Amino acid sequence: MCWQSFPQTETFRRQLILSLKSEIEMIKSFQIEATAAALLIGLTGLAQAAGDDAATFEIAPGVYSYTSGNHYHSMFVVTDDGVAAFETVNSKHSIAMLEAIRAVTDQPVKFALQTHNHWDHASGGGVMQEAGAKTVMHKLAAEWLEANPGDADLVRTDPLFVQRCTHETVRLQPSSPVAMRWALEDVELKSGLSIPEGAKVVIDLESVNRDQSIFGADAADFNPHRETPDGVPAYGLSFGSGMHACIGMDLAAGLLFHDDSTMDDHIFGLVPEAVQALFDHDPVPDPDDPARMDDSTTRPYFGHYPVLLRS
User: Fold this and answer.
1) What are the structural domains, with CATH classification, of the chain?
2) Segments of the chain assigned E as strands
């Protein structure tokens, strides 16, 4: 079976987060409480046994632990009424888990249960829904996912989205918090402020790039879907402008995508290409080695950010 990513459309997202109260009583027939307890006991010894290969383990009658070999573990419970799957993770993982389920039983998948509100644990829900499952989760998790649409698949399938993420990061965290210029003549700004010829002008890039009148009410938030006014680059003034713009900005961050651009000839930039390559290997922060800020500077930079590559 070919791997594929299911579209993160608004309809899909709303379907994914849908928690149907009428199904709750039906879920009880799967005896989730008892099987989940068995799972917790079984998984303790399975995390190391699974290694890097896809594997299915029956840890109790009708209760299975599954890993697709990417450090994620799911489970599914087989009953006479159907199958309940726990932890859909992502599209690739869920497609493989469906194959594992079908290798065990012909029963249909009736429910896909999400344990919490992280898209890297829940974005495979669309696969299960396509297979006929109902998605169930806690009300608070559903509310969070609705307010924070997932882009987990986009970072793996849409290089233009990765470039927008790069530009948004550069906007919020410019390599230098200020820029300096000297006035070649008397200038009066729209605000009424007068700058005399020869004056040194210090531009607060962090403030400028968070101007709500330009970037919207959520200007201080990371939003790679942000639309900017005509003539305003997505990265703000972080690379400067005019004849003094950073000479390496096109090489580093690529060109802005315009109406006449195509995906085949577009220049994405070295940083987006490197980020894309990293996401191709499904990275997650190392839980045993937390990230640390760089204490040698007052700028909000990470000095240590280890990740695990799961594929």
Assistant:
1) 10-148 (3.60.15.10), 158-280 (no CATH)
2) 55-60, 63-67, 73-79, 82-86, 109-113, 134-136, 178-182, 187-188, 194-195, 200-204, 283-285, 292-293, 302-304, 307-309
Q: Say what the pTM is.
A: 0.55
Q: Are 272 and 159 within 8 A, CB to CB?
A: yes
Tens-digit pLDDT profile for the chain (311 aa)?
A: 233 333 444 444 344 334 333 343 444 444 444 344 334 434 333 333 334 578 899 999 999 999 877 567 899 999 999 999 998 887 778 888 999 999 999 999 999 988 876 666 777 777 888 788 888 887 777 776 677 666 666 777 788 889 998 999 999 989 888 999 999 999 998 889 999 999 999 999 999 999 999 999 989 888 888 889 988 999 999 999 888 889 999 999 999 887 778 888 889 999 999 998 888 888 888 888 888 988 898 777 889 999 988 77
